[in-house]
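Appendix B.2, paired examples.
Example (i):
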Amino acid sequence: MTQVTRPTRTRRTAEDRRRQLVGIGLRMLTTRPIHDITVDDVAAEAGIARSLLFHYFPTKQDFYVEVVRAAGRRMLRATRVDPDTPAPRGCAPSSRATSRS
């Protein structure tokens, strides 16, 4: 008889679990619209019960709000202008750079 070994599960902190779930939502958001991301799919990918997801996010809408909020933060970080980078030719300098105090 062969003994089957199961992967060891690591207990996560509440904040770490929330980050994991939002991360899964963000990854899914790259391939489908938010309304097609199901709680069941997120929970399955996280390896948790659907009901546990609702422990971290009281409603499906609360989960969606956090995923969209995280996506917005990522977009803002990705499009932030580096003030040390020169403007491309033909672009007017920003008003911040030309304003005199």
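Example (ii):
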Amino acid sequence: MKAGALIAALVVAAGASWLARPQAATAPAAPLNDRAAVPSVAAPPQAARAAQAAGAGWFGEVPRAMPVPAPVPAAESMADARRHGDARTPPLAPPTAAGAGPTAAQLADPRAYQAYQAGQDARVIAAFANAAELEVPRLQADVERARAAGIPAAQIARVEEKIRRLEQLRHEIVNPAQLPRN
């Protein structure tokens, strides 16, 4: 029942869209039996000018005189995309800043590369500490709103435990000298 109503709504919307579409100025049709009235090679530029004078339609319609490229078989298209990529695909990750990776000297020396990796790890941990510092006040506000809304105490306790663990981890990151030694 719902599918039929949806299809009917789509048909009505498509019809309304088609009726509301701007009309292009068209030339009167030539008589079929009069060969002299049929335009020859000069028709495509005239048709293009007529379409330009009428203005673009809803989707910037292309004049009929424009050649349409021949369709490419799907296997060829996929093979080309595999080899060269698809220009329409967005980048997977934002481009990194120049000099963000290790230098050639760091790549050549194992100890220098270990120091580079330690620096990268320290940056990740510092980013976590900064994010936790921003997240804890938001979670505490959520707990207060939950208490006011009458949320069950068990659910509130889970969020309070999360806050406690985030604060503990942040404290361990900020003060590594106070960590218990094994």
